[in-house]
Each structure stands twice: as structure tokens, then as C-alpha cells.
Amino acid sequence: MTTATPPVTGAPPRWHRPARRTLLVHCGWLAAPLGSLALTALATGGRIGTGAWITLTAIAGSFAVLTVIGWVRWARTDYRVTHDSFEVRSGVLTRRLKSVPLHRVRTVDLTAPPLHRLLGVTVLRAGTAGSTDGGGEISLEALTAADAERLRTVLLARADVRAADEDPVVSRINWRWLRYAPLTFWVIGGVFAAAGGVYRVLDGAGIEPWKLGVVRGAFDEFGARALWVTIPLALLAVVALGTVGALVLYVESWWKFRLEWTDARTLRVHRGLLTTRSVTIERARLRGAVLREPLLLRAGGGATVRAVAGGLGNKEENRKRSVILPPAPRTEAVRTASGALRAGFPDAGLRGHPRAALRRRRTRGLLLVTLPGTLVLAVLGALLTPVLLHCAWVFALVSVPVVRWLARDAYRSLGHGIDGRYLVTRSGTFSRDTVVLQREAVAAWTFSSTPFSRRAGLVTLTAAVAAGEDGYHIRDIPADDAPALAAAAAPGILEEFLTYGPAKSRADRRRR
């Protein structure tokens, strides 16, 4: 039984061992040979030959040896948290002591593959942003989920966010982040974009793709089989191709990624395999950061980070050059944003928005998605085939709960607040963006509303900033609260209108 990590006190901290279930984790390699042996037995009707018995004996011997090795390794592995470091002792003949200073801890990653989840254990990795090839990283193979969470809490509580001022390296590539590469909408959209590019190239060369033998054969094969078979297979092929493409693109784009302060005034992003990219952002032009969580990436616990900075080109160039972290664990994204801002990233404790904002999102989804789709299918069904009439009511039946769920998620994502020097706003469901802006960077405010939002008493407040996307929205806040929020976030812009505007209007009316 693993002992929970206690708070660090004046007494010398005790050493603890990983969970005993670590020994069972080492048995995961048995799945492949035993599965192969079972399939062989089924294929031969239960008759196992001499070769199979030899294989089974080898498996048993390997199991015994690896179990002894795993037990010895477990018995000789200890960890503890001292007042200033996280330490792990390991090794049988040669004892090794690995230590990470707590103030340099940047990441505490918990990973649980299927076998680990089945056994209720997880792998903990803690390291510094400046670690090279894992050299500054500590890994514990298997802790119980509860102990891992407690240890992570202790490590992160002791980690000093201000250490970003001391450590020039904010973040560097970790290839375990590859698991986040497929969690983007481009896994499917990228395949069609690539297909469109190939079509344009062939069409420009005077080749009609539809007349190629391979294409015609594929369409003939597709039409000759039942749709319930071909459509899932086609979707599976698209997802597989998109996943491979996403992995290749991730590796090419983020090879040797490194985000660092080259000096006290310059933040640099260096990355790329075939095309090397190096973007430098002056601290004076860095106005904030955006924590971006697309829907699929958010479901996988990941996020990306963009810098809000001036001097990065037009909007298209800015979107490419402002990314300072690839898809990565959300904890790493928060730490990277904190390191870039050299301050804590205030993404918690935001003020919620009124329920009228939820009603607006539900109504908008039903009017823009459910109603048009149902009407189109119904009209086509009346004109062409009754099958589409059934598709219409099925679409309505399915889309209504989906729209309501997305509207609820979008409403829960809404939030805003003021945290010290920063204005914080969060919104979105397909891409939930948390924007942290320097309050002094706000140059102007725009209040916008529609007849429907005015009826609901809501207004969208846009902060104009000479950096990034030029304007960042605080969506659907109470109209009565918007002027006070704008005045508090960026003093000196609205005070004249709030203080003198009504009096001037009354004087003008009296003069008239």
C-alpha cells in the first residue's frame, strides 16, 4: 500500500514506494504472446503442437524472470518530497538519486494507458522546462491514482511560478504530446483539403481525375456494396489518413520546439524540421496570451497557447506566428502562458453570465441548424423520395439534443473578470478561448447589440487592442454592467461619457 505524501514539515521527510500493483503492470507484455497462442489453438481446433508448448514454456520462464526483476526494481525504488526538491532513489547494484528542485518544476504529467487504468494506477512524470531529452525529468512508473493526485498537488503547490524570471526556457517539445495531434478538426478536414489540392493539380495538368482507372474502380466498388458497409469503411479510411497526416504535420511543424527568453526583453519560439521557424516577440509588444481549447482537444485534456502581440504581420501571418505552444496537456499550456506573461495565468474564478445568454444560444442553434436542416430534407423528400422525409424527422430528433448540449457547453464557457494588471475573458464551445489581456493595452471599447440581445438586456463588449486579433470580445454581459466593467478594466476611456454625458444632454435639451 502506497503511503500518501504528507506535507513537508520540519522533520526529515520519509521515503515512499510506488504501488505494489506496479508488478502487475509489468505483466502487460503477456497479452500479445498469449493472445497469439489462443488464436492458434482456436484455428487448430484446440490441438497444440510441440512448437506451441515450447513457446508456452518460454513465456512462463520469461514471466518468472521479469517478475523477479520487477519485484526487485519495485523494492529498490523510493521517492520523497523535501523542503526544496523532489527526489527518487532507484537501482539495484548501482544506486541513483535523481532530484528536481521544486521551484523549477514546470510539468507534472499523469499518464494512464489502458492497463494502468484497469489496475487503478498511473505514471507520474515531473520535470523542468529546461530539461534536455528528459534529463531533468523524474518518472515514477506506477502510483495509485489518489497518491498521484496528492503528489502532483504537493509538487505544484511548491513550484514557484515566478521562477520563469530565473529560468530562460519556458517550454520545449515533449513527444508524448503527439497523442494530441489527432484531436483536431483537421483530421477529417485535412484529408478533403489535400484531396482538393490534388484535384486542382491534376485539373491544371489537363487530367480529369474522374476518368482515372483507380478512381473509377473505387467508385464502382463503393456503389456495388451495401451503404451500411461502405460508408463506415470510408469514414474509417478518412480518419486513418487524417490521423497519419496530423502526426506527420505535428512532427514537421514542432520538431525541436523551444520557447525561451533570450534576454529580459525578448521571447523566442524556435521550431521546425524541414522548414525551420524562429519567431521573436519583444516583451514590450507582448500584450497577453490566449489559451485555446478546441472541442476535441479539450475532450482529451489538451490546449494550445497563442501570444497576443504586435508586430507579427497581418491577421493571417499573426495566426501562424503567434502560436507559442503546440497541442499539449492543459497543465503545460497554463504553465507556458504563465511563463510567457511572467505572471500567473488567471483562468479560474471568472464571473458567470446571465441565463439569458444560455437562451440565446439555444434559440440560435435551433434556428440556424435544426430548423433549416429539417426544412431542406423535408422539401427534398416531398420532391424526390419519401426516404428523405424520414431523414428529416430523424435529423430533427437528433439535432435538438445536440444543439442544446452545445448551447449549454457554450454558456458554461462564458466568463470574464479583472485580475490585477489583466482583463480576462472566456467564450466559445467549438474553440473555447481564454484571453488574458494587459489592461493598459486596451485602446478603445465597442458596445454592440442586436434587436434580440437588446430585448434580453445583453450587450457584447469588445476591447480594441493594437495586437493579435485587434479586438477581443466579452460576449453577452448585462447591458447595465458593461460600462462599469469597461471603466474599471481600462480607466480613462469612458469616464468622460459616463460622468458628463447625461449632464451635457440635459443642458442641450434645456438650451433647445
TrEMBL record:
Tell me if NAD is a UniProt keyword of this record: no
Can the keyword Acetylation be found in this entry's annotation?
no
Membrane-traversing stretches: 23-45, 51-72, 180-202, 222-251, 365-381, 387-407
**The entry's keywords:** Membrane, Transmembrane, Transmembrane helix
Q: What Pfam families does this protein's entry cite?
A: bPH_2 (PF03703)
Q: Which residues form the YdbS-like PH domain?
A: 74-153, 411-486
Q: What is the protein's name according to its record? A: PH domain-containing protein
Taxonomic placement: Bacteria, Bacillati, Actinomycetota, Actinomycetes, Kitasatosporales
